[in-house]
Amino acid sequence: MNEMSLPDDESPTVLIADDNPANLAIVVESLVARGFRVLVTLDGPEAIQRAQFSQPDLILLDVRMPGIDGFETCRRLKSDERTRNIAVIFMTSLTGSEVMVEGFSAGGVDYLTKPVHVDEMMARISTHLALRGMHQKLIAQNRQLQEEVLVRQQAEAALSRVRDGLEASGAQRTDELARANATLQSQIEERRRAEARLLASEFRFRTIAETSPVPLCITSMPEGHILYTNKPLRELFGVDYVTTHVANIAELYADLADRDRLVEQLRHEGSFRNTEVRFRRPDGTVFWAIATVRVATYDDAPAIFVGLNDITERKRIEQELVESREQLRELSAYM
User: What is the CATH code for 13-133?
Assistant: First the structure.
């Protein structure tokens, strides 16, 4: 069997969206065996959110999925600036030119027929990853060229100002030019270091949030618009409910007075820990959770980070204990 070889310093990321366990197992096993980093989702909305957050190198998208199908999922990916340039390969058991035309119209770059043939899949993935690599290389070269042109323009402008303004000796002019060049180089290096620190910080945050078992979400401040949710939080409120039906975290509180109290506390103190809060699910059921909230920066703007811990079972047991004590008191009163 021919296997696609990967460079030692590369681990391409492939996002798979498929609700078929048999097909999913074959694809995941084949990719992992060849050194790929694999992300798995079971439906379209989750695939869109994971793609926005994780920025995979390629997406394998099942055509038939619950909720929105693969074609609509692809159209939404291609309409988003963050995911527009990620190659999408459809997986389907459907045949016919109409299906292929619809897939290409939605923005897909290729098709895999189910059941998937591993050699064919790896060949197609290899081709599109190579194309993506060349595209990214061209973008990087263009960016580098633009930076070099900008640096040159800045240096030439500085040199022109120095030359026009200097009337002193040649030694003095040389010294001032050297200082200007040194300052410019220092600014360039500082900018590169700042960009490297920012990328490292974003990577650490994404890794922690994606793998955390604690339900987490991030909202804008002070409006409370939901910016990000992880999978445990979506499961706590109902799959995809938060991302598709709720625009503001204020809609999730079961008690408005409770919400106003916590908002006021956050406004004055900037955070709170281990606070019991009641929330309401889309089906109307109310549950208890311990909330820990703090204000921090997200995408260069102030945001509210919320962590939850479901304590509904504990509250039920506490209520049963209270009722048992009341019953004992009533029995004692009649004895």
Answer: 3.40.50.2300
